[in-house]
Amino acid sequence: MFIGEFHHNIDDKGRIAIPSKYRDILGNDFIITRGIEHCIYVYPNDTFNHIVTKLESLPFTKKDARAFTRFFMSGATAIELDKQGRANIPSPLVSYANLSKKCVIVGTGDRLEIWDEDAFNEFMSSCNDEMSDIAENLFEEKI
Amino acid sequence: MFIGEFHHNIDDKGRIAIPSKYRDILGNDFIITRGIEHCIYVYPNDTFNHIVTKLESLPFTKKDARAFTRFFMSGATAIELDKQGRANIPSPLVSYANLSKKCVIVGTGDRLEIWDEDAFNEFMSSCNDEMSDIAENLFEEKI
DNA sequence: TATTTATCCCCCACTTTTCCCCACAGTCTA
DNA sequence: TAGACTGTGGGGAAAAGTGGGGGATAAATA
Fold it and tell me: Cα dist. B86→A55, A94, B13, B19, B22 in Å?
């Protein structure tokens, strides 16, 4: 399970070090793709394949299915870590997530997310106040 | 499986390089045809044949079936890559997809899509805002 | 039928990008 | 304090993408 928050730099070549703590779970190759809030999702192969299977069950004749599949699959890239444990982020994803230099890598259970540091701080502070309301509607009964 | 996003140029002769990453899956000959959002779909032969079978199962007595089959089949062309790994796009498809110079080639699971860069950016930014909503309604239960 | 015109491929050469390797600095551990 | 590990930066070789020229084949015209 992915937990925690790490602050790493992405360099001019689009390389960013994956926290060593995660490498055991991720292995040497895995998938990254566009995330919904302009961040990057990092999935172990199994998890990603599972989502793809779900998406493939949707017909391409449905507009929303096309849009989401395009969004999700076109952003996806198979990553292999180099000997230093870094992932090479393709430039379309770098610009999608507005990664400049300072990045944040956070674990969110079944995946990692890579954020631009400023964007992450902004997002977190913007919903900190609402968190009480957000939590309110998540579950009906006791968890 | 086709994933990823590549930015290539189409030249005056209508040639565009298919990303080398895809050539293994596609092989040397495959099918391209009109896609729904004014882009070009690229299918391996098997996949294309499978869709054709599906379309043929629709009765020609239905107006929509006739229209869509006509749309899909009339645009189709068999492509052979040249020795540089480029596909020659027939001019009707070039104009259908408004390809000028800068193009985007994206993988969407079972096929590739070739877009004019401007058109692609426009489409993606137009549905970026909705992507959260779209994702919201795609699945009811956990995927 | 012969000549011209156009089209399509193939090949070569250049540029750009990508990938892989090495090196260094800071931190933690034994 | 020495050694190992982690994160960061840069250089060089190889691959991928791009553009243009030339020859073969097909179409068009006299």
Answer: 30, 27, 11, 9, 12
The answer to whether the CB atoms of A66 and B131 lie below 8 A apart is no
Distance in angstroms (rounded) separating the CA atoms of residues B120 and B103: 8
pTM passes above 0.85 = yes
Contact B107 A56 (CB under 8 A): no
**In Å, how far from its chain's centre is CA B123?**
14
Residue B55 near chain A (CB below 8 Å)? no
Assess A74–B contact: CB distance below 8 Å, yes or no: yes
Residue A79: partners with Cβ closer than 8 Å, 6 or more residues away:
A29, A30, A31, A32, A42, A87, A88
B76 touches chain A (CB under 8 A): no
State whether A90 and B4 contact (CB < 8 Å): yes
Give the mean pLDDT per block of 10 residues along chain A (143 residues).
Answer: 94 94 91 93 95 87 88 95 94 94 94 96 89 86 82
